[in-house]
Amino acid sequence: MNNKKVDTKKDSQTAPALVGEDLFKLPSSPSDKPHLMGNKCRSCGEMFFPSRVCCRRCSSEDMEDILFNPIGKLYSFTTIRVKPPHSIMPVPYMVGLVELEGGEKVKTLLTDCDQSSLKIGMNMELVIESIGETQEPMGSIEVGTDITGWKFRPAGGKSKLGKS
Amino acid sequence: MTNFGRFPERPVSKIGAEAVVAALKDADLQWNEIPVMYCAHSLEGGVDGQLVEAEIGHIGIPIINVANACAGGATAAFLAYQGIAYGIYDMVLAMGVDQAPHGPLGGRQPVTPWNVMGVSNMLSKYAMKMQRAIHEQRYTLDQMALVSVKNHNNGCLNPRSQYKIPMKGVEDVHNSRMIADPMTLYHCCPTGDGAAAAILCTEEIARRYTTGPFIKLAGGALTSQRFIRGELMDTRDVSVRAARQTYEVTGIGPEDVDMVELHDNFTISELEHIVDLDLCKEEEVGPLLEEGAFDINGRLPVSMSGGLIAKGHPTSATGIAQLCEFVWQMRGQAGDRQVQNPKVGLSHLCGGDEGMATTVLAVKI
Known about the structure:
The structure holds two protein chains of two kinds.
Chain A: E1 17-18, E2 24-25, E3 35-41, E4 47-48, E5 63-67, E6 71-80, E7 93-99, E8 105-110, E9 123-133, E10 146-154
Parallel strand pairs in A: 1-10, 8-10
Antiparallel strand pairs in A: 2-3, 3-4, 3-5, 6-7, 6-9, 7-8, 9-10
Chain B: H1 12-27, E1 37-40, H2 48-56, E2 63-66, H3 72-85, E3 91-99, H4 113-116, H5 122-135, H6 141-155, H7 170-174, E4 178-180, E5 183-184, E6 193-201, H8 203-209, E7 216-223, H9 237-250, E8 259-261, H10 267-276, H11 282-290, H12 307-311, H13 318-331, E9 344-352, E10 356-364
């Protein structure tokens, strides 16, 4: 996963970059699912997204990397209509809090749904896809780079992409 | 304190100096009598306190810059309290100053994946808290809107308020611009500019300058988050613990509190924090609000100054501004928003997002 590589060929097409290293894993085959990446405390079993240096619960340094189950539950949601600083998302756009296995929650974009169809507690599944182009430098990623991030959509529902 | 509002043409150092000069005049003190200053600021450079000093006069005193986001000013007051209580200083000037750009806060925060994706900001956090509270049937949208009506109408009575918008009822709040569903504009406090300063000293020093009334910072507490599984929106456990510790160290109980200024950054916060401060139960707070218990003339006035929602919220200035409000109220100088004979005030602020700094301070006469 090299998110720093920028293609500087004539057509100035830039290679897609990931919004952050070590935050998610793309499917390795067509039958595979994407996963959020985090870590788990070997002492108390608590799981974290994103990874923490030590366990947030018991401060143990004995941590192992994990892939989260791509299905979670919708805890809350909103539609943002005023652009927050640094955001590249055109308003309005939907965001949510999704509870993952183990109880950790992830702040996420929501996709393939409209607000009226969302219900707190419903199952959501992870989607990794383009979120747009960077509008300011982000680490070593240049302005105008197509960037890939995480989103959730209602699980098993009909997708605009025709996939479930 | 200065008026709260938008003063983009005024350097932050001059805004801060205006508040310091006002505090000195109020206390009948000269600047060169101040032995130390704690200056809270969150949105500007590293040494705003020294820039304020440069406006008033270089007197070579220790100046400590304090950053704790929205709780910065209250943290400066807490440190001042500690400095005096532990006998390090006999007098401290605590101040807060900030100047914010128009629009949602966060422009000076780092560019992170969460910020780029627009999923981690105050608007989404509090809109999702509202959504969740409605789902759990804790509060109705009308009750949350009523907080805005009350605080805006209080703000109309405060000459230093950023906004003086009279509200007829909850429809005024519902009909304002949608920001993040179900949160409309008037559920949100504004960003803005302003400063506030307070001089704290031992009783012995105070007696040299005044015959009273003597208003005392009785004590307080500063908390950060404990681990709660999956909790990305905690403002409550931090507040509950800060309140409990404050009641313990001061001997003041919830039943003694006559007035409250709290972190009403969004309307839902006021309802939650009244409960967190142990002033009533969760199921009581909505009905109590509706019956007027938290009005200026109610049983327990909350956000008499207009709160963050109407008076404004120049981040680090707010903590000190809450103390200024208590002082004016206890001296009987609060004009049309005067609470009848208050003896104890409780101040509460929450700074930050996923890393919280929460303060509770108790003031008594």
